[in-house]
Amino acid sequence: MFRNISAWHVIIVLLVVVLLFGAKRLPDLAKSVGQSMKIFKNEVKDLRDDETPATTTAPVPPAGVTPVGAPPVVPPVVESQYVTPVRPVEEPSEGHAPPKA
């Protein structure tokens, strides 16, 4: 597509750009295009860095597997206001018989 571009084509395109934007606005336009390209390159670099895995971190074991030598994981005891304390069952005394239904 761009194989047949000659110097005359480039000169004509530049003249059209100068006529459209004016000679005074071209430096500002070039500066904003340069800043946009810099931001774009930084974002592409950040995306590439995010895709590569970090080699300095230790591997994470699967869920439910305790590494060898690690103490067992015990869930913390949480006392709730909604749990009724359990009272021990009272044994009937020797002199009293349970009520009959």
From TrEMBL:
<dbReference type="InterPro" id="IPR003369">
    <property type="entry name" value="TatA/B/E"/>
</dbReference>
<protein>
    <recommendedName>
        <fullName>Sec-independent protein translocase protein TatA</fullName>
    </recommendedName>
</protein>
<dbReference type="GO" id="GO:0033281">
    <property type="term" value="C:TAT protein transport complex"/>
</dbReference>
<feature type="region of interest" description="Disordered">
    <location>
        <begin position="48"/>
        <end position="72"/>
    </location>
</feature>
<comment type="similarity">
    <text>Belongs to the TatA/E family.</text>
</comment>
<keyword id="KW-0812">Transmembrane</keyword>
<keyword id="KW-1003">Cell membrane</keyword>
<keyword id="KW-1133">Transmembrane helix</keyword>
<dbReference type="Pfam" id="PF02416">
    <property type="entry name" value="TatA_B_E"/>
</dbReference>
<dbReference type="InterPro" id="IPR006312">
    <property type="entry name" value="TatA/E"/>
</dbReference>
<dbReference type="GO" id="GO:0043953">
    <property type="term" value="P:protein transport by the Tat complex"/>
</dbReference>
<keyword id="KW-0811">Translocation</keyword>
<comment type="subunit">
    <text>The Tat system comprises two distinct complexes: a TatABC complex, containing multiple copies of TatA, TatB and TatC subunits, and a separate TatA complex, containing only TatA subunits. Substrates initially bind to the TatABC complex, which probably triggers association of the separate TatA complex to form the active translocon.</text>
</comment>
<dbReference type="GO" id="GO:0008320">
    <property type="term" value="F:protein transmembrane transporter activity"/>
</dbReference>
<comment type="function">
    <text>Part of the twin-arginine translocation (Tat) system that transports large folded proteins containing a characteristic twin-arginine motif in their signal peptide across membranes. TatA could form the protein-conducting channel of the Tat system.</text>
</comment>
<keyword id="KW-0813">Transport</keyword>
<keyword id="KW-0653">Protein transport</keyword>
<keyword id="KW-0472">Membrane</keyword>
<feature type="compositionally biased region" description="Pro residues">
    <location>
        <begin position="59"/>
        <end position="72"/>
    </location>
</feature>
